[in-house]
Amino acid sequence: MDEAKLAKILIVDNDKDFCNVLENTLTLEGCNVDSVFFGEDALHYVEERYYDVVIIDLNLPDLNGMRLMKRLKEMRENIQVLIISSADSAGCAVEAIKSGAFDYITKPIMFDEILLSIKKAIKQKQKTDKAKEEDESESLVGATSELQKVRDLIKKVAPTDTTVLILGESGTGKEIIAQEIYRLSERQGKPFVKISCAALPETLLESELFGYEKGAFTGAQRQKKGLFEVADGGTLFLDEITEVSLGIQAKLLRALQEKEIKRLGDTKDIAVDVRFIAASNKNIHEEISAGRFRQDLYYRLNVINIQTTPLRERKDDIEPLCFHFIKKYKSRAKDGEKSVSKEVMNCFMRYDWPGNVRELENVIERAMVLGMGSMITLGDIPDRIRSVFYEKRVSSKRDFDFEHEVDLELEIETLERELISKALDKAGGVVSKAAKLLKIKRTTLIAKMKKYEIK
């Protein structure tokens, strides 16, 4: 039962005697086990705690087991669910498996059977988690020296418990870096909890981070663990930390220094063991100077600083990133995997990418969904990027000083496109007249119009 040792398991069944027996059995096998008797309680537990496997009775007093499984899967995508039922029905079993259950076991339960099922479910979860982590790590795609420095720093800092501060523009992969640090750390397999500080108002953010006691404020009808407690033993990633108010910053500083927190409405200290990673897209020194960010918190966070590089400063990574995203989204395309036309790649290399890697990914995804054929062409990319190709780059008055390399083929194609467009304008859109102005055959002009997507 090696796979189940230290596994976290939740039993959801209103039969208290059954819960007690199964909980004792699994505990003896080395599992960490909780039991609840109602579906709503299970939702609260999974929201606040980390579980590998949830065992659900199909017929709960307050919530159908299938419906509960669906809601749990929405909360924790890779949580493994075993459905148990007194109904020995092949139809129920098939429905449960199709709906996402790992297994369907009928009562009376043979404990050897359920132990074997748990073992297989955990093995499947580990396999899926590993595949997902490998896919995420591949998002650090590229070969530039800037990206290699980030990779090297991640490898050095990941095995430690040192606090990390990641700074850089939006869309440069700060969350991916945090996930990679977690993946390579000794805390891998424990909770990885992330929250965007900019997405929540101050009062809600505070209760989400530190939790609260029943009655701590209006609407606090039960005790709730905060994300520090949920992440206990694992990693807590706070994105856009410069959006946090000064009051919450003081509490974060204490949590980092003392390894303790207090829930709202409580006076008792709670010890937490959390590896802390923070990120921001702002100039943190300007935030400190403006009095919006505590300098002492910055020093506590800035043990290891990882600075991301905007895509406009590492354009050699654009091509491998394109291939990576094409592969990632090939299932979205009618024609499967595509390639990028030379004109599109030239646009990508000239464009400044204010949204960085995230913007490039969105552009590729859009082209995969909307584009036709096996090639991503100019017509498949947004106007703001396509316009780069249409900008006038060659004229009789232009002086090439060759301080930078010149793409001769692109310059010729650009001039050719401009001349064709002007000839068509002069000819009122009549192709034969435009061909005569250009001293080429009508069929040749039609072929070139198709090439440059001129209508």
Describe the protein.
The chain is an alpha/beta fold and 455 residues long. It folds into 4 domains: 2-128, 3-Layer(aba) Sandwich (Rossmann fold), CATH 3.40.50.2300; 138-307, Rossmann fold; 314-385, Orthogonal Bundle (Helicase, Ruva Protein, domain 3); 392-455, Orthogonal Bundle (Arc Repressor Mutant, subunit A). It is 47% helix and 13% strand. It is built from 19 helices and 16 strands. The chain has helices spanning 16-28, 39-48, 65-75, 90-98, 111-137, 145-157, 174-183, 202-210, 227-230, 246-258, 284-289, 295-301, 318-328, 342-350, 356-370, 383-390, 408-426, 431-438, 442-451; strands at residues 8-12, 32-36, 53-57, 80-85, 103-106, 164-167, 192-196, 211-212, 224-225, 235-239, 260-261, 270-271, 275-280, 304-307, 339-340, 375-376. The strands form 5 sheets. It has a 5-stranded parallel sheet, with helices on both faces. It is globular, with a radius of gyration of 29 Å. The chain starts with 7 loop residues before the first strand and ends with a helix. Mean pLDDT is 87; it is low at 392-397.
Short description:
This protein is α/β, with parallel strands linked by helices and 455 residues long.
Strands, helices and their partners?
Layout: E1 8-12, H1 16-28, E2 32-36, H2 39-48, E3 53-57, H3 65-75, E4 80-85, H4 90-98, E5 103-106, H5 111-137, H6 145-157, E6 164-167, H7 174-183, E7 192-196, H8 202-210, E8 211-212, E9 224-225, H9 227-230, E10 235-239, H10 246-258, E11 260-261, E12 270-271, E13 275-280, H11 284-289, H12 295-301, E14 304-307, H13 318-328, E15 339-340, H14 342-350, H15 356-370, E16 375-376, H16 383-390, H17 408-426, H18 431-438, H19 442-451
Parallel strand pairs: 1-2, 1-3, 3-4, 4-5, 6-13, 6-14, 7-10, 10-13, 15-16
Antiparallel strand pairs: 8-9, 11-12
